[in-house]
Amino acid sequence: MLKASIDLGTNTCLMLMAEVESGYVNKVLGDYASIIRLGEGVDKTRCLQPDAIERTLTCLDEYKKIISKAGILPDDVICVATSQARDAENGREFFAKVAIELGFGFRVISGKDEARLSFKGSLLPGMVPSSHAVVDIGGGSTEFVTANDGRSIDLGSVRFTERYLKSDPVTDKEFNICLAEIDNKLEVLMDWRSSIPSDMQMLAVAGTATTLASWHLRLRAFDAAEVEKVQLTSANLLQMVKDLKRMTVKERCGQVGIDPKRADVLLAGAMIMWRTMEKLHFQTCNISSRGLRYGVLME
């Protein structure tokens, strides 16, 4: 059965078209990603900004054209929104506009549901669910989830860049404050980590993780199959953090494997990923290019 899903996050808008049968994605017919930064300024203003809204509407209009060519109606697409929609006071108004103009009916999901669906959709073929902890680093929040328990905290690459990393390149003071705040946020997960096996494997998903893996491989074009072969260590991530810290945003844009539209928030994302490994004592980190958009189709 041909299905489609849209995952509208703080930084990206993702769409998946696939053949789905009995809860499994059998064949991917199209996997699309656009960096629209809908959550720009939401952490400070608690409102979706006009420019961000227009970027998102343009992206969704393009997605509508794609699914129409495939014979899928907008109201048959499973659409979910996450952190920025939970935070924005004008989120309900925005999604009403989307429904009227484009026909997409979005459901704003809770952090708990986001964690559960991200876990379900992130596991790669052959992975044993009980052996992996999925860490989904988003723009506004990060989800930490195993087969039995999930948490969501307001720790994201866009949110923490806007709060703490305002200089270009960032200053030592900004960096150290941001690092301390990341560690402080991660403290609430100590009980979660102690409740799972010490040898649990970390599986990182979403744009920060796939971009860092692409940069690690120096990929000139994104290749999901190659990215999913990558296994990073804390030392790998620390070196990436050091390199990103000394660069300007323009210099990051020139790095092979880094999407220029993600360059400004990548340092914060890398810091979150690095400190997660350090603070929660994960020895290695595998990468998945899948995630929430897969999970909603599978369910």
TrEMBL record:
EC number(s) in its UniProt entry? 3.6.1.11
Domain named Ppx/GppA phosphatase N-terminal: residues? 28-298
- One Pfam match: Ppx-GppA
GO MF: exopolyphosphatase activity
Q: Does the keyword Ribosomal protein apply?
A: no
Return the InterPro entries for the record.
ATPase_NBD, GppA/Ppx_hydrolase, Ppx_GppA_N
**What keywords were assigned to this record?**
Hydrolase
Tagged with keyword Chloroplast: no
User: Origin, by domain of life?
Assistant: Bacteria
This protein is called Exopolyphosphatase
Source organism per entry reads: Candidatus Scalindua brodae
